[in-house]
Amino acid sequence: MADCLVRVIHPFHPDHDREFLFLGSKGQAGKDRLVLQHEDGTSFTIPATWTDSVAPDPYVVVGEGRVHLRIPELATLCEIVAEHRLEGGSCPG
Which pairing describes strands 19-28 and 31-37: parallel, antiparallel, or unpaired? Predict the structure, then answer.
């Protein structure tokens, strides 16, 4: 069986547009995650939707690159910022 490579397509991921060896998949918090392997042999997980292994979200396709975050991602970002503020964090700059 040939090795299966998966490309990271999330625009803000540090490994954007790089391919990794697919090792397997698992569900975590109700979402599918892929287990991929770095060139050095270490493994990591990433949401399946951040890779080319699933069909692209129609909303993103229609946006033709103009839309970087959908409403669910914006809501998650708001939660992260609010949590950061509650912990006394500050923004750089």
Answer: antiparallel
- Please, where are the H alpha helices in 1-93? 58-63, 71-86
- What domain count does the chain have? 2
| CA separation for the pair 92, 61 (Å, rounded) | 33
Q: What is the pLDDT of residues 55-90, one digit of tens each?
A: 877 877 787 877 777 787 788 788 888 888 887 766
- Counts for the chain of helices (H) and strands (E), in that order: 2, 4
16 and 44 share one domain: yes
Task: Based on the fold, state whether residues 49 and 83 are members of the same structural domain.
Answer: no
State the burial class of residue 51 (Cβ atoms within 10 Å of its Cβ: 0-12, 13-18, 19+).
Answer: buried
In the sheet with 43-47, reading across from the earlier edge strand, the strands are: 5-7, 19-28, 31-37, 43-47
Q: Report pTM.
A: 0.62
Shared domain for 60 and 49, answered yes or no, is no
Q: Which residue range forms the structural domain that includes residue 80?
A: 56-93
